[in-house]
Amino acid sequence: MDLQKKQSKMEKLRAQIAVCTRCPLHKTRTNTVPGEGDLNADIMFVGEAPGRNEDLQGKPFVGRAGEVFDRLLDSIGLTRAQIYLCNILKCRPPDNRNPLPSEIRACVGSLDIQIKIVNPKIIGALGNFATTYLFEKFRMAPAKISAVAGRVIEVETPFGPKKIAPVFHPAVATYDIHKMDILLSHFQAFKQFCPAHEPYPENIL
Ligand code: URA
After folding, report:
1. Which of 90, 157, 92 is nearest to 118 (CA)?
2. Which residues sit opposite 45 in a β-bridge?
3. How high is the mean pLDDT in each 10-residue block of the chain (205 residues)?
4. Rounded-to-integer distance, Cα 32 and Cα 58, Å
5. pTM to 2 decimals?
6. CATH architecture of 3-191
7. How would you class 92 by CB atoms within 10 Å of its CB: exposed for 0-12, middle for 13-18, buried for 19 or more?
8. Do 163 and 155 contact (CB within 8 A), yes or no?
9. How far is CA 17 from CA 37, 176, 185, 189, in A?
10. Residue 187: what pLDDT?
């Protein structure tokens, strides 16, 4: 799919999300948080749900977890402009409680479309909820995040082979600074997909 087509499809999806009333979270949201980034990115990250700052600004990961996320990206030479970033839920659960199964079921259709449009090579599942959903979607046996974080799992999908890389949610490093080292090591999984690590072609001269 060319970039123009991707942009037009993502615009249509954004418009649908903006008026979505599929679950009760629409009653308490300030803004929907559809996601953002490079529609041609090789790397897509999926988080859990917008928090207070994200709800106010309509953008993903703009609070403290976002600061951790930016440091993790920077550690492998990436910026947000080079990835696509979104969440399982597009609206904030009140008081940042966990997403309910009914809310996830109502919302993930939009994530499925985002995955199809961006068609990344690797999907970073940020935390338990994204890992659980992506494992289910790609028909993998359910697994606890603690058992699979840091692994890169290859899956066959109707739109080609993909890799799923579950990592801890960046918010954990805001409660427990020791988790930052673990997250930094998990993020090495994405390094091979960073443009900064692509070698120059040998036949350039
Ligand atoms: N946590 C998430 O999972 N997503 C956000 O956008 C912010 C915090």
Report:
1. 157
2. 85, 124
3. 97 98 98 98 98 98 97 97 98 97 98 97 98 96 94 91 97 95 96 78 82
4. 6
5. 0.95
6. 3-Layer(aba) Sandwich (3.40)
7. buried
8. yes
9. 17, 34, 34, 31
10. 97
Neighbours of 22 (CB within 10 A): 17
Q: Which helix (H) or strand (E) holds 68?
A: helix 64-75
pLDDT of res. 205: 78
**How confident is the model at residue 139, as a pLDDT?**
92
Expressed in angstroms and rounded, the spacing between residue 160 Cα and the centre of ligand 1 is 28
Mutate which of 87, 88, 169 for ligand 1? The one with the most ligand atoms within 8 Å of its CB, which is 87
> Which of 31, 45, 54 has the most ligand 1 atoms within 8 A of CB, as the residue to mutate?
54
So where are the chain's domains? Answer: 3-191
- Report the phi/psi class of residue 160: left, alpha or beta, with left for phi > 0 and alpha for psi in -120 to 50: left
